[in-house]
């Protein structure tokens, strides 16, 4: 199959979250399965800076050409390179007005032009395929930024030679971000007025590209089976649960994977000592070195709790902040790496200042330090309010660090809480209700069970031996593409 990915993020080039991780890894695995994959993304300032740092030459794929749609005209340039670490072509869509900004999702001079930016990007993907001779079997659109592509296919694009046989797959990475704009923004899409309807992109008086992608794609996926179930309910459906139930015949959840080469404790270059399941001496060394780096006294029998996350409400830190000091008094040490809302940054920093011998906080993000935290900690906390998939718990499991999670979204698909009877399959600890006391008791249970070294090694081994690689996910996407072609 020839598969075209359209995405606003690609790791490690330009990303803010899991979307970038998926689109940086999944195309490589599909290529290993023998498919012809091409990735389109915007040529952000951040992408330019990445290639300059890495010394990678980006060549022109086609001179700039005008794109005219609705009442707009903008020029698109196309550049070509390879997805890092692969032979997968990466096509970069250039337009400095839209993409040369301080942050990936920055507005322009205060103008709220997000829909215009990504309508242009979708139009540029279409034109890029036509100019570069790319005739996709599958057009795989990711999140709301690319959601108009299935709509454009439906609206007449399949009449062109380039797209006559193309079928579309739309993946929801986070349903809470839908790209919705006011009714005046409908003109920006360039769609016929018949698409301003409840069975198209109109949603309670707004333009909702996410809704359009869901309705018009041949197959719809999201990033974990449990999240697929959750978002078909009013509680988690963000106003689109009815739409998702209506298309349940073509909707499925495919659990994300992780890059098992990058996240491999047996070869990780960021660690002082490597280790693997059954040979965990290197993890002990990693804990000792992490404690030293955090300026904490190393205590072999004291559980070291880690947090690696954006410090925002979605990640459940309104549950953790009130009880962290209590966990420290109960006999734990903690390290926190992250950035986000001032309230949480200041709150965690204050706890660290009050408990310098048992808590350390790094504000910001450091990928190498994140590797060392996963390797050196005993427990990792993820008390998310919702979590479409989650990757941190997979990284932790790979490194023999047991997650304590709220059982939601992909966390419930990957973590099997220990309940005293299931040591053969358990790999972490969990709680259901979004309450601080429930998080406390789940973490406390982990701290108590840490004292049983034989049980702990069994739980560690269970997690470390699980297959979270992208090869598993790629085969499921391959089956999704085949269903789209048959439909």
Describe this structure in words.
The structure is a single chain. By secondary structure, the chain is α/β, with parallel strands linked by helices. The protein has two domains: 2-257 and 471-486, 3-Layer(aba) Sandwich (Rossmann fold), CATH 3.40.50.2000; 281-467, Glycogen Phosphorylase B (Rossmann fold, 3-Layer(aba) Sandwich), CATH 3.40.50. 37% of the residues lie in helices and 20% in strands. The protein has helices spanning 18-32, 45-54, 96-99, 114-132, 148-154, 186-189, 209-216, 225-230, 241-246, 281-293, 317-320, 324-329, 342-354, 367-376, 392-398, 409-414, 436-449, 453-464, 470-486, and strands at 2-6, 36-42, 59-69, 72-82, 89-94, 138-142, 167-172, 202-203, 206-207, 219-222, 251-253, 304-311, 333-340, 359-363, 379-382, 402-406, 429-431. Strand 13, helix 13 (342-354) and strand 14 (359-363) form a beta-alpha-beta unit. Helix 1 crosses helix 19 (470-486) and helix 10 packs across helix 14 (367-376). The protein is globular. The two termini are 15 Å apart. The mean pLDDT is 96.
Write the layout of secondary structure elements.
Blueprint: E1 2-6, H1 18-32, E2 36-42, H2 45-54, E3 59-69, E4 72-82, E5 89-94, H3 96-99, H4 114-132, E6 138-142, H5 148-154, E7 167-172, H6 186-189, E8 202-203, E9 206-207, H7 209-216, E10 219-222, H8 225-230, H9 241-246, E11 251-253, H10 281-293, E12 304-311, H11 317-320, H12 324-329, E13 333-340, H13 342-354, E14 359-363, H14 367-376, E15 379-382, H15 392-398, E16 402-406, H16 409-414, E17 429-431, H17 436-449, H18 453-464, H19 470-486
Parallel strand pairs: 1-2, 1-6, 2-5, 6-7, 7-10, 10-11, 12-13, 12-15, 13-14, 15-16, 16-17
Antiparallel strand pairs: 3-4, 4-5, 8-9
